Amino acid sequence: MKKFIKSFIPPIMLSIVKKYKKQTWQGDYNSWQESQMDSTGYDGDEILNKVKNSLLKVKNGEAVYERDSIVFDEIHYSWSLLAGLMLAYKERLNVLDFGGSLGSTYFQNKKFLDELDNVSWSIVEQEHFVDVGKKEFEDNRLRFYHTVDESVAIQQPNVLLLSSVLQYLEKPYEMLDEILGNDFEYILIDRTPFSRQQKDIIKMQVVPEYIYKASYPCWFFDEGYFNKYFIEKGYRLIESFDGADGKSQDYYFKGMIWKKDV
Questions:
Q1: Is 7 within a domain?
Q2: Which of 11, 33, 211, 228 holds its CA 20 to 30 A away from the CA of 47?
Q3: How does pLDDT run across 4-31, given as a tens digit for each residue?
Q4: Residue 26 phi/psi, 5° resolution?
């Protein structure tokens, strides 16, 4: 599992907010490696520090909401994702947030989570994110782990959250093959891009320079195959919904709520 964690690229996917410049995607590319050759890469410490400083403002009450290192003066809820979290709560809600940064989705929904009696939120991330998370953000509810196995052994999550993460893995289905062996009751997916070409394609994502200067590979999935994969793993699609990152004539973003068939 560690090889997958090391392959994370922190998600820099902003919602369509008029005062911000949209990021762009270039391609299609024939392979992940081909896209990597055109990509400039990124400074992990720069990303980490920006996210940390923004989320500390949220934690300390100096800002209301953070997404992708940008702070906002109001929370931009994914109401469908929140509905999935509430649906999964049956005496307990134990979430494994795979690639969850320093807790962006946790803090986004904290007002509602605080109304529930038995909640744990585990984040599995890159090593340097986990180290900062443990030092600056961890408490009796929010925990950080280096591996899925470690999180599962300690927290026994019933929900797997995959928000803006699958598209940044070189081999996302191989990662899913491994992680879904833990038999989660619910899988919540959000901010995931799909191609209108009815096949998986690879593009290069170009991050706006006001965030930082970087570009890197990004999958756009074939939704038909994507859904078939989860069905064959024994999950039933309860609902799908539009993602916050928009759509065009070439692609669209979606989220999904999957439940394990008994």
A1: no
A2: 33
A3: 555 554 444 333 333 344 668 888 999 9
A4: -120, 155
Beta-sheet pairing, 214-220 with 201-207? antiparallel
- Domain of residue 174, residue span: 23-46+77-260
Here the CATH number for the domain that contains residue 146 is 3.40.50.150
157-to-17, 197, 256 alpha-carbon distances in Å: 33, 35, 18
Q: How many domains does the chain have?
A: 1
Strand pairing category for 159-163 and 186-195: parallel
Q: Is residue 16 part of a domain?
A: no
Nearest alpha carbon to residue 189 among 223, 156, 218: 223
CA-nearest of 158, 182, 164, 19 to 91 is 158
Nearest to 207 by CA among 24, 7, 8: 24
* Distance of alpha carbon 131 from alpha carbon 140, whole angstroms: 16
Among 47-61, 79-93, 98-112, where is mean pLDDT lowest? 47-61
- H helices of 162-236, in order, are 172-179, 223-232
Tens-digit pLDDT profile for residues 206-238: 888 777 677 889 999 999 999 999 999 999 999
